């Protein structure tokens, strides 16, 4: 099958892990007889350096002409003191908004072979297989300071948390759709004891549950959810929440698995053009050193094959290869727990590619 993929490596380790994902996609292309046309586009800091624009028109055009988008990560200290319009993150937020990528899907699965990497006890880690569904195009991240908030005076400041009911409806419906496919249940996370937006969120969750009669729904306050992710992560199936709560809880849940470098994500649009990216950021502290764990990026490529191209067998081949390699004891530095022996990004990628052809 012929597919066009917009590859947006971005900055820092984004570049290294996007390269790893591309190598794995090329191996799948050969093994299964597909044709993936991967074209690179600039976004974030690298785009600012090139043209002064964190989201160049050419990049948007490339994305719109593609069947799916792969993103590495954006940002870095070099651009931290830039004005807002010239920050790498503005490029990524702009891309999410422009392409209407409203639902961020983050699976959190523990590997028994990585139990030693997790700060949690072995018993607590059994059967952790949850998906965080995070709203991505609203909330505090998009409150426009110039219109509704900002700095009214020298000594005060306002950020606005704004949602339309329809934003909540489409996101919560996506979570219920996912729970139906998984045969699971939905936990809706909010702060309804404090926030008006959370009270509307609860109403919408209830209305949606009335449509999906077979899917159990429970509500949980975000502080309680933060605690439960540590005390009993296996009690969650699909966790759905607004933008900032989702940002925080998904980094927390990532650490349950042992490393931020392990987790993939997908961002779905209503129009069918989806984006895939590892959950981690550009990790300036290890950028350019070939030390990054490429697994989150490689598993994001697997999600792309499954969700955008309906290539289930190919996606499963990647996931099995990752599992196999981890079982064999191979580690990147983040997973090595202070041990001296670990592989570089490119060596780990090679191991996974080698395991692709194996039968398990
Ligand atoms: P962002 O704001 O873009 O989400 P962040 O502040 O959350 O970024 P990250 O860039 O994700 O930070 O990095 C957080 C920590 O995790 C860093 O110490 C980084 O080195 C480590 N880390 C992140 N991703 C990886 C990876 N793929 N492999 C190894 N270590 C990683
Ligand atoms: Mg982060």
TrEMBL record:
EC numbers, comma separated: 1.1.1.85
Entry's Gene Ontology BP terms: L-leucine biosynthetic process
Coiled coil residues, start to end: none
UniProt superkingdom: Bacteria
Keywords from the UniProt entry: Amino-acid biosynthesis, Branched-chain amino acid biosynthesis, Cytoplasm, Leucine biosynthesis, Magnesium, Manganese, Metal-binding, NAD, Oxidoreductase
InterPro entries named among the record's database cross-references: IsoCit/isopropylmalate_DH_CS, IsoPropMal-DH-like_dom, Isopropylmalate_DH
Sequence similarity: Belongs to the isocitrate and isopropylmalate dehydrogenases family. LeuB type 1 subfamily.
Protein name per Swiss-Prot or TrEMBL: 3-isopropylmalate dehydrogenase
Annotated organism of origin: Metabacillus lacus
Gene: leuB
């Amino acid at each position: 099958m012929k597919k066009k993929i917009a590859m947006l490596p971005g900055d820092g380790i984004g570049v290294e892990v996007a390269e790893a994902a591309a190598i794995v996609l090329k191996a799948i292309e050969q093994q299964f007889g597909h044709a993936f046309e991967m074209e690179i586009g600039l976004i974030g800091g690298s785009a600012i350096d090139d043209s002064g624009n964190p989201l160049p028109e050419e990049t948007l055009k490339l994305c719109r002409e593609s069947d799916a988008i792969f993103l590495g990560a954006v940002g870095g200290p070099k651009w931290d003191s830039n004005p807002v319009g010239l920050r790498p993150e503005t490029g990524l937020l702009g891309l999410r908004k422009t392409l209407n990528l409203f639902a961020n899907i983050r699976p959190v699965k523990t590997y028994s072979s990585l139990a030693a990497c997790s700060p949690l006890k072995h018993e607590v880690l059994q059967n952790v297989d949850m998906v965080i569904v995070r709203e991505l195009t609203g909330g505090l991240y998009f409150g426009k300071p110039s219109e509704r908030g900002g700095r009214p005076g020298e000594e005060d400041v306002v950020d606005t948390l704004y949602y339309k009911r329809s934003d909540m409806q489409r996101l919560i419906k996506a979570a219920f759709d996912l729970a139906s496919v998984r045969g699971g249940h939905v936990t809706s996370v909010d702060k309804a004891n404090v926030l008006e937006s959370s009270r509307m969120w609860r109403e919408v969750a209830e209305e949606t549950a009335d449509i999906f009669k077979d899917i159990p729904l429970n509500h949980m306050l975000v502080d309680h959810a933060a605690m439960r992710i540590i005390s009993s992560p296996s009690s969650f199936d699909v966790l759905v929440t607004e933008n900032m709560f989702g940002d925080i809880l998904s980094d927390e849940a990532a650490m349950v698995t042992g490393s931020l470098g392990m987790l993939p994500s997908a961002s779905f649009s209503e129009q069918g053009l989806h984006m895939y990216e590892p959950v981690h950021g550009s990790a300036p502290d290890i950028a350019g050193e070939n030390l990054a764990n490429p697994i989150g990026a490689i598993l994001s490529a697997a999600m792309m094959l499954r969700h955008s191209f309906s290539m289930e067998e190919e996606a499963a081949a990647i996931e099995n290869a990752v599992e196999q390699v981890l079982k064999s004891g191979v580690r990147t530095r983040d997973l090595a727990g202070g041990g001296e022996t670990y592989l570089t990004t490119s060596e780990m990628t090679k191991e996974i590619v080698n395991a692709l052809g194996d039968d398990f």
